[in-house]
Fold this sequence. Notes:
Elements: E1 3-10, H1 12-20, H2 24-34, E2 38-44, E3 51-56, H3 60-72, E4 76-83, H4 86-93
Antiparallel strand pairs: 1-3, 1-4, 2-3
Amino acid sequence: MPKYVMLSTLGPDGAARLRDDPQRLKAVNAELEAMGVKVLEQYALLGPYDFLNILEAPDEVTMARVATALGARGTLKTLTLTAIDVDTFIDSLGEGVGR
């Protein structure tokens, strides 16, 4: 199943909600799973992004729907990237590009 990396930044409302209810993170994970996305790994970050999530979804349309639903709440902004396993990437290059 395809994997995706989602970086997120909390807005003021999202930060306040997390401060008041840290377990909200787990509730959001359950909501993602109900939308067809599995949370494989999740990290809190220091720097320009607050969280990094490694997700598994059936396709990019599902991932786009989830990212839109999360963003529509107004509590965070996301950046979602497709993640390709390195061995799969190497295999896709065959004998090399341009040969």
